[in-house]
Amino acid sequence: MLRINSILNLPGFTIKKASGTNPLFLEVEYRLIPRCVYCQGKNLRKKTTFIRQVRHESIGHRQTILRFKAHKFYCRDCYRYFNQRFPGIGKRQRATEHLRRQIFHQHTQGISQADLAKQFKLGKATIERWYHQHDVLAYKEIDTRPCPSVLGIDEHFFSKKQGHATTLCDLRKHKIFDEVKGRSPKELAAYLEALPGREKVKVICIDLSSNYRALIKRAISPTRKSLLIASMSFA
Length: 235
Description:
This protein has six helices and ten strands, in the order H-E-E-E-E-E-H-H-H-E-E-E-H-E-H-E. The chain is α/β, with parallel strands linked by helices. It has three domains: 81 residues, no CATH class; 50 residues; 82 residues, Ribonuclease H-like superfamily/Ribonuclease H (Nucleotidyltransferase, domain 5). A hairpin with a 4-residue loop joins strand 7 and strand 8. The N and C termini lie far apart (52 Å). 18% of the residues are buried.
């Protein structure tokens, strides 16, 4: 991919023309071979052509709008009509996934809906909807992650209102894997029993709490004898 096209971060698109300042209008072209959205076949007949215009993530401090040709195809293999789909751009969406992700991260970092609405010239309801949609996707990604093979479990005091929380760490990558409210076996058993990949855990490091040891034997390794449980003081 040419360096000038890499700023788009959209596979298959190339920049043909740029105009304007803020917003920056980019005439782009999709060069990959289209496929049927139903059967993935390539034996297509072009029915109609139309222009799509979608907002894209900012380049520098300038808002970006993409314009490109799209087609309605007829598939000769499965005999169905469909509008062309593009990677990183949802069906009938007027903004790329990159722009939605940019707004999600900026809102997460503390920029208000009003400021984002003013900056991107969008409605606050739109920003809130995009934020919640991306939040659901982010949660699904976290919820389906496999459990680390080397797991660290420790508790910490969260707040007077919320009480204690339990932190699970991937000790091989030195990263936090997840955080769960509570510390008692009753509060954590259901979470651990539903944890994807818990059967592949090889080493668990915990503090000297007998509650954690009993919980692990019950929820993670009820029938395993090869699991190493290392107890140590983190003080």
